[in-house]
Structure prediction request, 136 residues.
Amino acid sequence: MNSTIHHGRNIKRFREMMGIKQEVLADALGSDWSQKKVSLLEQKERVEKDLMKQVAEVLKVPVEAIEKFDQDVAVNIISNTFTSHDHATGLIYNQNPTFNPLDKLLEVMEENKKLYERLLDSEREKVELLKKMIDK
Prediction:
């Protein structure tokens, strides 16, 4: 299943979710980057680890999010959770899920907790760097 994960497409998805244009990402990555180079990066199926880490830092997402996000799995989870019918609501909850929805909810909550902890650590590092810069 890992073969379906496209790093470049995931970079594009996260960039768009953050509302960041290709030009802005290029600028944040350095002077040797351009909008065209970001566009080419987003077309690559596999992105080198060092570059992925740099992009993840700019987008403020964990490297694992870019490496492991699989749209097919996300769509599969959604389609297994809901069954579409032409009723007033448009969606009817699937009464026979193939997984325990509470387990999935707990997994997501645990992942969110880890992401928030990493974000908090990152913010603490930024504060420390700013303190050092002010002291100098």
User: Anything to note?
Assistant: Residues 101-135 form the longest helix (35 residues). The beta strands are 82-84, 91-93. Helices lie at 7-17, 22-29, 35-41, 49-59, 63-68, 71-81, 101-135. The chain has seven helices and two strands.
